[in-house]
Amino acid sequence: MEQALVIAAHGSHLNPGSSEPAFAHADRIRATGLFEEVRETFWKEEPHFREGLRTVAPDEVYLVPLFISEGYFTEQVLPREFRLEGFDPADWDSDGTTADHTTLTAADVGKTVHYCGPVGTHEAMSDVIIRRAESVTGDTEVGSGVGLAVVGHGTERNENSAKAIQYHADRIRERGRFDEVQALFMDEEPEVDDVTDHFESEDVVVVPLFVADGYHTQEDIPGDMGLTEDPASGWETPTVVDGTRIWYAGAVGTEPLLAEVVLERALDAGAADSTSAARAMEGTR
């Protein structure tokens, strides 16, 4: 049976760069030829979620949310807009970071939809965070003598937002590659604006767990950390703050390796053979 992959992202009316990661990751997966069709859909841009399943021909669809955490969008907005009949968050049997996939029928088009958990809570996202640290430092062996801050928004409205950040910080810490690993937040403790207070390392890599660069990653976080008084004018990488060299990586979702996490979500739900998929992705690097 022919299969389609649909990537669902937030998008933005205000930030034209918000959709760029979705298009870039879709292009990489499309180039593998693993799916008959690969489509991008958005909440705040066109093509809209509501049209997402109508734009693909195959009757079997793998729907992957390009979101960081489980919560309002993955549990309410996407199931409603894609008309996933009978969806219940309990189908994922998740503790807030372990949503896998569930198979449903889209009420309006009758397609079989394998609805996957968000990319941000997949275990492979830990590898993307590390790759982001390598990219910003230019050091494929970065870790020894270096601290790593995994930064998220954090919000009382969605406890799973913080869980996703803590989950990856814990997994990376367990590997023992970095001298220190901390989960920091914008809107709850421990806060990213006190980043130097949470590390003893002279070098700290800061990786925001956001899908796209925007106001938070390009203004709020660098301003809060003291990298610059005027984010619009940019900052040096690294920038010394209170005697600590801060290597600020920008949004993790812009890292090309994230395309492989999107694909992993679909593979976990029963899409193409994993060995063939690995070879196909290797050919796009």
Structure overview:
- The chain is an alpha/beta fold and 285 residues long.
- It has helices at residues 20-32, 72-81, 125-137, 159-175, 215-225, 258-268, 274-282, and strands at 3-9, 37-42, 60-65, 84-85, 101-106, 112-116, 146-152, 180-185, 203-208, 239-241, 244-248.
- The chain folds into 2 domains: 3-121 and 255-282, Rossmann fold; 125-254, 3-Layer(aba) Sandwich (Rossmann fold), CATH 3.40.50.1400.
- It contains 7 helices and 11 strands.
- Strands 2-1-3-6-5-4 form a 6-stranded mixed β-sheet. Strands 8-7-9-11-10 form a 5-stranded mixed β-sheet, sandwiched between helices.
- Helix 1 crosses helix 6.
- The mean pLDDT is 92.
Strand content: 15-25%
Number of helices: 7
Q: Termini distance?
A: 28 Å
Largest sheet: 6 strands, mixed
By CATH, the topology of the largest domain is: Rossmann fold
Shape: globular
Radius of gyration using CA atoms only: 19 Å
Count of domain modules: 2
What is the level 1 CATH name of the largest domain? Alpha Beta
Helix content: 25-40%
CATH architecture of the largest domain: 3-Layer(aba) Sandwich
Give average pLDDT, whole number: 92
Structural class estimated from helices and strands: alpha/beta
Element-level helix/strand string:
EHEEHEEEHEHEEHEEHH
Query: What is the spatial order of strands in the main beta sheet?
Result: 2-1-3-6-5-4
Query: How would you classify the quaternary structure?
Result: single chain
Q: How many β-strand stretches?
A: 11
Low-confidence stretches: none
